[in-house]
C-alpha cells in the first residue's frame, strides 16, 4: 500500500481512465493536509443511525479505510470524537462517509483522516431493527454516473477529495499513475522554460 502513498487522487483518477471519483461534496473535515490510503472496509448504516459504524470500527482490520453510506440521510453526526478514538485504537487508516460527522475540533486534533459531506451536531440512534450491512458493495451517485465500492478496493483521499480504484485494476493504475506523475513533472519543467500549455499539449490556437 505504501507505493500509493504519494499518488494524488486526481492522478489516480486520470491514470485509470477517469475512474472512481466519489461525490465532490465528500471532503476532508479534519486536520489540514490529511490524506488517506488503504483497502476499503464497507459499511451501510440505517438513516440517522450509527450502530453499523460501531460494529465496523470493531470488525474492520487494522489499516483499512472505513467507507460508509448512510441510506441517503446525510445530516447527522454519524462519527465524532469517541468513535475516532475507537478507530485509532484499532489502527484503522481513516473514514470516508457519505454523510456528516461532528466534534470537528477533536477530529482535527486527532490527526485521523476523515472525509465527509460536512459537519452536523444532530445525534444518531443505535437501532438493530434498521436495514444495515457490513462488507457490502456500496454505490455512490456521482456526477456523470455512479461509482461502486467493494470491500478491498483501494481508497485514496487528499485535499481534492476521494478516489476509489477497483482492486483488480490496482497494479495497472499504479503504474499508469507513476507514468503520469513523471510526465507532469516534465510539463512543469517546460513551463518554467517558457513554453505555454498550448505548445505542450498541442492545443488548437485561437482562430484555428
Ligand atoms: O457518539 C456518537 O454517536 C458520535 C459522536 O459524537 C462521537 O463519536 O463522539
Ligand atoms: Mg461526540
The third-level CATH topology is: Glucose Oxidase, domain 1
Strand content: 15-25%
Q: How would you spell out the order of helices and strands?
A: HEEHEHEEHEEEEEEEHH
Unreliably modeled segments = none
Amino-to-carboxy terminus distance: 46 Å
Whole-number mean pLDDT? 96
Quickly name the level 1 CATH class. Answer: Alpha Beta
Major β-sheet profile: 8 strands, mixed
Number of strands: 12
Bound molecules: oxaloacetate ion, magnesium ion
Q: Tell me the name of the CATH homologous superfamily.
A: Ribonuclease E inhibitor RraA/RraA-like
Query: Which CATH-level-2 architecture?
Result: 3-Layer(bba) Sandwich
Enzyme class: lyase
GO molecular function, one term: 4-hydroxy-4-methyl-2-oxoglutarate aldolase activity
Subunit structure: Homotrimer.
Catalytic activity: 4-hydroxy-4-methyl-2-oxoglutarate = 2 pyruvate; oxaloacetate + H(+) = pyruvate + CO2
Amino acid at each position: 500500500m505504501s507505493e500509493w502513498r504519494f499518488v494524488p487522487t486526481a492522478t489516480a483518477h486520470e491514470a485509470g481512465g477517469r475512474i472512481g471519483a466519489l461525490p465532490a461534496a465528500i471532503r476532508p473535515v479534519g486536520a489540514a493536509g490529511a490524506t488517506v490510503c488503504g483497502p476499503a472496509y464497507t459499511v451501510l448504516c440505517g438513516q440517522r443511525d450509527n450502530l453499523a459504524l460501531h460494529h465496523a470500527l470493531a470488525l474492520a482490520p487494522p489499516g483499512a479505510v472505513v467507507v460508509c453510506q448512510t441510506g441517503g440521510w446525510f445530516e447527522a453526526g454519524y462519527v465524532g470524537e469517541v468513535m475516532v478514538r475507537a478507530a485509532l485504537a484499532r489502527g484503522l487508516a481513516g473514514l470516508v462517509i457519505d454523510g456528516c460527522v461532528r466534534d470537528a475540533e477533536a477530529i482535527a486534533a486527532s490527526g485521523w483522516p476523515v472525509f465527509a459531506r460536512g459537519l452536523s451536531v444532530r445525534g444518531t440512534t443505535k437501532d438493530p431493527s434498521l436495514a444495515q450491512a457490513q462488507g457490502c458493495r456500496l454505490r455512490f451517485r456521482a456526477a456523470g454516473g455512479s461509482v461502486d465500492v467493494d470491500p478491498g478496493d483501494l481508497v485514496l483521499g487528499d485535499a481534492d477529495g476521494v478516489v476509489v480504484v477497483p482492486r483488480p485494476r490496482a497494479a495497472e493504475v499504479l503504474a499508469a499513475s507513476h507514468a503520469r506523475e513523471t510526465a507532469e513533472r516534465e510539463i512543469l519543467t517546460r513551463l518554467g522554460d517558457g513554453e505555454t500549455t498550448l505548445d505542450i499539449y498541442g492545443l488548437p490556437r485561437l482562430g484555428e
